[in-house]
Design a protein that fits this description.
Blueprint (H helix, E strand, L loop, with lengths): L1 E5 L9 H6 L4 E4 L12 H12 L4 E6 L5 H5 L4 H17 L4 E4 L11 E5 L5 E5 L1 H11 L11 H13 L2 H14 L15 H10 L6 H22 L2 E4 L18 H10 L5 E6 H5 L6 H8 L3 E6 L2 E3 L5 E3 L9 H9 L6 E4 L20 H17 L1
Helix pairs in contact: 2-4, 4-9, 5-6, 5-7, 12-13, 13-14
Bound molecules: D-mannose.
């Protein structure tokens, strides 16, 4: 396995020199300053690649080359945006960068409801709670028909939350769900947005009438259009599973389980249509058996995210230690280390610990917490070699 680390570019408070010291071999990054939908030129890609190489590492994986919403919902500008995407892939290909992670989640990328969940040992981690999420959906977003998406028991918990709800808590929920987790990954809503909820409502509106079937067709259309450039340069496209792997906010999500992944790999059988095996995202759906899925899809897996979760009886989940939880990272490390291909992996997310909270890190992307998790995974690797 190739040991990589997600680095957010020159603005990242974690420097490439620091990463070399902790055993990182490859960098996972993107040209974050280029707006979504614009072309990544060959020279911009080269500049970043040279910068990374001048620090003794390589640019191993692009995470992400973002897919514009219009491509996902099939808007009038989608062919132009796909042509731009193809051009960006060609720029990467000409620079020898051949692993690209992306996702096809409508409107909202990964979702959490608490970014500072306190663990018994004093560290903090990320959590998703259904009642908080349903509260956001039904009482803040006020999405039409939202209440029908939830069970009566869950709606009773939403009612119970109402009594203790303050304006400050509401603002924190909004910030957590649609701003803080989204802005830094080139999402739709940037930090500092004055009216995030109404921007978000408008975005949801774009998907009116787009069901699972149409979203799948749009994904196939996109992949069919980019496979020729991927074949030409040998680029592996690695879709990131939906996080969490279930339907939310009335939006279709189509990379949540084995049936979805089977469909995706069969619909576009070109071997450059592959997966980012995000153990953490998949583990937060109780329907997924992560080690079994790793084995089933290994031939089309070109990038691995190592992270784990604990899921309770109501489906709420919390990000677990990398040594625990339902992803069984020890089994995955043993399995991937035995593969003939040197698949890049990165430790995904980490606890906030030992002063991480005082630094301006993106949620989930602490330094000490991730370094600690990386050391745990390196320990696993050394035991199975
Ligand atoms: C969150 C990340 C995701 C991921 C994208 C890939 O921590 O795992 O934002 O990078 O979904 O496109």
């Amino acid at each position: 396995m190739e040991r990589t680390w997600r680095w957010f570019g020159r603005k990242d408070p974690i420097t490439l020199d620091m990463l070399r010291q902790i055993g990182v071999e490859g960098i996972v990054t993107a040209l974050h300053e280029i707006p979504n939908g614009h072309v990544w030129s060959e020279s911009d890609v080269k500049y970043m690649k040279d910068f990374i190489e001048s620090h003794g590492m390589k640019w191993s994986v692009v995470e992400s080359l973002p897919v514009s919403e219009q491509i996902k919902y099939g808007g009038p500008d989608r062919d132009r945006l796909i042509a731009n995407y193809v051009e960006s892939l060609a720029s990467l290909g000409r620079n020898g960068i051949r692993t690209v992670c992306y996702n096809f989640m409508p409107v909202i990328d990964w979702i959490r409801t608490d970014l500072d969940y306190r663990c018994p040992d004093g560290t903090t981690t990320l959590r998703f709670d259904w009642a908080d999420f349903a509260y956001f959906d039904c009482r803040i977003l006020c999405r039409e028909g939202a209440e029908e998406s939830y069970s009566p028991e869950l709606m009773a918990r939403v009612d119970a939350l109402e009594s203790g709800m303050t304006e400050e808590r509401k603002a924190r929920l909004i910030d957590t769900i649609i701003v803080k987790t989204q802005g830094f990954i080139d999402g739709n809503i940037k930090e500092g947005e004055k009216a995030p909820v109404s921007v978000f409502r408008n975005l949801l509106g774009l998907y009116a009438g787009i069901d699972r079937h149409t979203l799948r067709e749009n994904l196939k259309y996109f992949l069919d259009s980019i496979m020729p450039v991927c074949d030409e340069y040998g680029i592996d496209m690695c879709i990131h599973p939906d996080d969490p792997p279930f339907q939310v906010l009335g939006l279709p999500r189509i990379v949540t389980c084995e049936a979805d992944i089977d469909w995706l790999l069969d619909a576009v059988p070109d071997r450059h249509n592959g997966l980012t095996f995000c153990a953490g995202s998949l583990s937060s759906g109780r329907h997924n058996n992560v080690p079994e899925m790793a084995a089933r899809y290994v031939d089309r897996t070109y990038f691995v995210h190592l992270r784990s979760t604990d899921v309770d009886g109501d489906g709420n989940f919390v990000e677990a230690s990398h040594l625990a939880g339902r992803a069984h990272l020890q089994d995955l490390v043993r399995f991937y280390s035995g593969c003939s291909r040197n698949i890049p992996y990165r430790v995904d997310h980490g606890r906030c610990m030992l002063g991480d909270a005082e630094r301006p890190y993106n949620p989930g992307y602490s330094f000490l917490g991730r370094m600690y998790a990386l050391a745990q995974v390196m320990g696993m690797e050394s035991m199975v070699k």
